[in-house]
From TrEMBL, chains A, B:
Its cofactor is Ca(2+). It comes from Flavobacterium cerinum. Residues 306-502 form the Glycosyl-hydrolase 97 catalytic domain. This is Glycoside hydrolase family 97 protein. Residues 21-288 form the Glycosyl-hydrolase 97 N-terminal domain. Residues 1-18 form the signal peptide. Residues 597-698 form the Glycosyl-hydrolase 97 C-terminal oligomerisation domain.
């Protein structure tokens, strides 16, 4: 307590009008204040250790006086909130939303008393705060030049970072100290179909940090609605991160109309890494859903005509023309290239496979006219989303799939031509409804049209939400790839069941992902929402499918199984080809069994960049699943079972790396065994280099 | 002939591979050639006088080698074409399309034989030519950096010009020599809601010119489709005009996919001014319509709730809030401002007036939520096009109007937020169909959203056509204000029945139009298509409606009548208020009688900037109408009647300026008399300063 008081007085000495709140468990302390110049500031400590040193808040406007200084505090209000709510789908059946709130109203005398609010919500797992702009005479329309929210770091933390970019999130994570970002940036910016860095020390969020004194700190945003997506720019002299918004085509960073607000800036904190993964703060900061009927929203396990094109074995395109014009090119008169995977007979094979193994849906990419010249041409009328190739029989495949209890999953690649997508969207969604599709994977590969806008500009943030809301009118679930990384919007819009928005499994076929890639992603990308990571690759050598492609998946086969547990998603793909699964049906059984919706989640052990071990209970069933993964270092996972009801015995089928497994040299070596476990069992499970372990647990049925 | 041959040899000496064609009547001679550097050139003479001196052609590309030089002629082809066709509506029942054509195929050896076509069509009234980009291995996708089409003038011509601008066409025409453009530009660029000049000698098209040796020359474009709108930049040292396209948000000037083509660049020529107005070349250069059913497309005479807001007497807005949010602001709970003209009772008065006097439709602006803050805020979700104000009963007004045989005319002000309009367009058009509307006036007041695009960028050209084509699906006619000036597209899309795209009658209430304004517009703005000029203002002193507005209409009352004949449009508004018309029903009779669709048109006399006298025969009726207008100079119009069938007598009702009429001091002085005329009659009709005369002619019915 003494320490707390002295810390308070120290802070109070340098800031005026200091206000303070604590988290419900009192571990976190937020201090708000004003500098001598009237600049709003905040600071955050966790168990008396600094998380955020005194940092400035404010907004720089395009015209007129800024919202940066000259503030006085008009009033403050403190309150508390405590509820439990149930998501439509998620890692838990119920989520606890408990915080203490501080609402500060600030005004600028020099601006005729123009006032704003800053609202702080302090949870046990972290802090969320946002700016609010109430409607008033002195404030209706304003244009943001830059947001100036600082996050002053208490040290040269270890960081798991991606280069800040207006157009792509698909870089490999770099692990380094903050002071090394500048030197490592050049190599980190690998080529992408659409990219735009902005600073030699620019970083994306979610940003994961670890301090020397053992604090895990994650910085991101929640409820990104009608605002520009935030990146961070690092002042690597002072170790201060500052918000850096995405501009529009003319360089402005936000068109605002009061009353309105910024998204929540989120800082998740703990001294235990698993707490970061168990934080639901970002969801809690989003609004509850207003959807009345959510019965049409269901998690999906699917297969798809996709990996065979990603590897280069097949093609999306129907023929080899270099240029087509939709509505003018008569495809029936062109010569098929013989490699088009999305043909009726071949898709039926996938449907048969899905039906046989209990999958919900089959995704088909390359089903529609336009793939011959879709990429890299800034072509506007690139797809119409409703015209199939001559060899893809929409109605027959709908009938066939339905007869087998399988859904077809639609694919809407937009090629970044968002305006074109909007022109066709109603027809495209109606086409889906008319032909039995209830879910769509959308994509935004390539530079955005309207030209000059970026993937994370305010206009595109609005576009993505427009697509989700309109989809809900048609009872369609959306899985948006290359869209902005999620910020918990699925609470409000639960038909947003997935995003890619990071470097996914496809990159294993484009040179490979780092061995530690998926030990980082839950600490970064997944903080804002689930990822359609599309794991399940059993044939890790891509050259088996395409002799010209020497990429390989940087995991063992078993680690691919574990990913179904460690990479939470309500949308899970078994991404490999049926012919490969048929060779390993014993291992494939785990993918068939694993749930995609959960009653509860237990992060048993985790360290970003090194390992993760998670157990989950399937929703509404007495089944549990455990996934353990490691990076390039072999290790022994410490798997415990305290979450199993006491006094019962369970059968655990353990899918393990073989003794000689090695993600480079011997990835497909695995062993499956069944053991009995109960709540007291402790299992030391060896994981190979780049390996993992997967366990499915069910009650022992006594005869 | 000798002169022609020597001219040819002179040209041939300086250009290689000279090709020549003549117009059917041989007055115009086009010469195509290549410079020593392989730059394509063309030149045009009329009756041996130079119209266009040898001028370069070509396209500058963003990437790779340009299409400017290094060409050789692969082949040429000459042909002729002669047809008569009937427009759905127009100044004539039939139009003659007769030209000689030269098609030149040029290739660049250095670019692996990449080839383009230049196609010249030479009519009796002028030259049209365009670039064509056939699909080939060396040319599919390309981005235009600038088109480099020159129009080398043979002298320092008199020009009737507007400042070149990417966003507005609403400047007052400046009449000066080309050499004076630079000095006069600053004063010419008057303020506008959205504007962007690009050069101190930039000019818009249509551009009207008159040479010292009596040639009338008009430069414009035809069939502007999927291309950037062309302005001209004047090199005022050499008197060379060069094409200057409108950029997009990132500075590019055209995203192209072969096979494709540029619009036609048009040069209308004559030594008689009336021939310029009688030219139908721009329509002839457009494609015939593919619409199968055009029965729903009909010319419209209308009144509207509009001028009372333009003058400031009433408001578009329902209340006086400074900021509203559609779907959130509950209008029924706000305090009406008491000046909202678009209310049910008041609109019924207009409907009554329309029904009583035989008008087809009533336009209502300000009927829908959003007018409180629609302007100047770059607000994106500014209108939804379907939600009426609380005092505007859509269904009741539909019923009432229908019961009286009157149509309601819809208004879609977009505020330049084109992307927002597209999001709502299907719903908006369906709402029209559901509520009995078959025509819409659309508007684009303010800067464009997507931000950074301009009103005349390629993306907006595509948007305007998208709106027209989609309207046709709903059998809706479109009258687009602030959209790009027309280029004859109405031939292909006859539901485009109007544009504003110039300084219209509304500016009479914003300070006034020049007294010669409408003696110029037919030679400039109207060359590409009709204008919804909305004349018919009888109360020329705006202060009568709004004491705070001292603007006055710069014409006499009778000149307003004449405009219904001299300003061709299939869409004609009687723009003043019913209460004013009721005071002058005798003069109003002309507006009631005047046709809006024509069998034939006769330009009796005309001089750009000075006077126009036109006679027209109503479509399918034995009625003729004459309009004569002058500028600030009083004059005597020489009105003849040779177009009347011989041997019959006709009754001509002559609406004339009073003896003491004066557009400033005594605008409302007029006299109406009926006289008998026949085909031999010659009428010297006095026009006051800023005045006119209007005549309606019908057969004498003998008892």
């Amino acid at each position: 307590m003494k320490k707390l008081l002295s810390a308070f007085f120290v802070l109070a000495a340098v800031v005026l009008h200091a206000q303070q709140i604590t988290s419900p468990d009192k571990n976190l302390v937020l201090t708000f204040g004003l500098s001598a110049k009237g600049e709003p500031t905040y600071a955050l400590t966790y168990k008396n250790k600094p998380v955020i040193k005194t940092s400035k808040l404010g907004i720089d406007l395009k015209e007129g006086a800024d919202m940066l200084e000259g503030f006085t505090v008009d009033k403050t209000a403190q309150s508390s909130f405590d509820e439990t709510w149930s998501p439509v789908w998620g890692e838990e059946k119920t989520i606890c939303n408990h915080y203490n709130e501080l609402l500060v109203t600030l005004s600028q005398k020099a601006e005729k008393g123009r006032y704003i609010n800053v609202r702080f919500k302090l949870f046990n797992d972290g802090l969320g705060f946002r700016y609010e702009f109430p409607e008033q005479k002195e404030l209706t329309y304003f244009v943001i030049k830059e947001e100036k929210t600082q996050f002053a770091m208490a040290g040269d933390h270890k960081a798991f970072w991606l280069p800040g970019d207006y157009d792509t999130q698909e870089y490999s994570t770099v692990t380094s100290k903050l002071s090394e970002v500048r030197a490592k940036m050049k190599d980190a910016v690998t080529p992408n179909a659409s990219q735009q860095t902005f600073s030699p020390t620019g970083l994306q969020t979610p940003l994961m940090l670890k301090s020397d004194n053992g604090l895990y700190i994650n910085i991101h945003e929640a409820a990104l609605i009608d605002y520009s997506c935030m990146s961070l720019n690092l002042d690597d002299k002072n170790m201060v991160l500052e918000s850096w918004l995405t501009p529009d085509a003319i360089g402005d960073k936000g068109y605002m109309q009061a009353p309105t607000q910024s998204p929540w800036r989120t800082i998740v904190v703990s001294d235990k890494a698993p707490d970061i993964l168990q934080s639901r703060m970002i969801l809690n900061l989003n609004e509850p859903t207003k959807y009345k009927d959510v019965s049409w929203i269901k998690p999906i396990k699917y297969v798809g005509v996709w990996w065979e094109m990603i590897t280069g074995k097949s093609s999306w395109a129907y023929n080899d023309l270099t240029s087509v014009k939709l509505g003018e090119t008569d495809y029936s008169k062109t010569k098929p290239n013989g490699k088009h995977a999305a043909n009726t007979a071949h898709v039926k094979e996938y449907i048969d496979f899905a039906a046989k193994h209990g999958f919900d849906a089959v995704l088909v990419e390359g089903w529609n006219e336009g793939w011959e010249d879709w990429f890299g041409k800034s072509k506007e009328f690139v797809f119409d989303f409703v015209t199939p190739y001559p060899d893809f029989d929409v109605k027959e495949l709908h009938r066939y799939a339905a007869s087998k209890g399988v859904k077809m999953m639609m694919h809407h690649e937009t090629s970044g031509a968002a305006a074109n997508y909007e022109r066709h969207m109603d027809k495209a969604y109606q086409f889906m409804v008319d032909n039995g599709y209830n879910s769509v994977k959308s994509g935004y590969v390539g530079d955005i049209i309207p030209r000059g806008e970026f993937h994370y500009s305010q206009s595109m943030i609005n576009h993505y939400l427009y697509a989700i809301k309109k989809a809900a009118e048609y009872k369609i679930m959306v899985n948006a790839h290359e869209a902005v990384r999620p910020t918990g919007l699925s609470r409000t819009y639960p038909n947003l069941i997935g995003n890619e928005a990071a470097r996914g499994t496809e990159y294993e076929a484009f040179g490979g992902n780092n061995a530690d890639h998926t030990t980082i992603l839950p600490f970064t990308r997944l903080m804002g929402g689930p990822m359609d990571y599309t794991p399940g690759i059993f044939e890790t050598k891509v050259s088996v499918y395409n002799p010209d492609n020497n990429s390989f998946v940087h995991t063992t086969l078993v680690k691919q199984l574990a990913l179904y547990v460690t990479m939470y998603s309500p949308l899970q793909m078994a991404a490999d080809l049926p012919e490969t699964y048929n060779k390993h049906l014993d291992a494939f059984q785990f993918i068939k069994d694993v749930a995609v919706d959960w009653d509860d989640t237990y992060v048993l052990e985790a360290e970003p960049g090194d390992y993760i071990t998670i157990a989950r209970k399937a929703k509404g069933k007495n089944e549990w699943f455990v996934g353990a993964i490691t990076d390039e270092n072999a290790r022994t996972a410490k798997i415990t079972f305290e979450y199993l009801p006491k006094g019962k015995t369970y059968l655990a089928t353990v899918y393990a790396d073989g003794k000689d497994a090695d993600y480079v040299k011997n990835p497909k070596s695995y062993a499956i065994k069944t053991i009995k476990v109960n709540s007291k069992t402790k299992l030391d499970q060896k994981l190979a280099t780049g390996g993992g372990a997967a366990i499915s647990i069910k009650e022992e049925v006594k005869k």
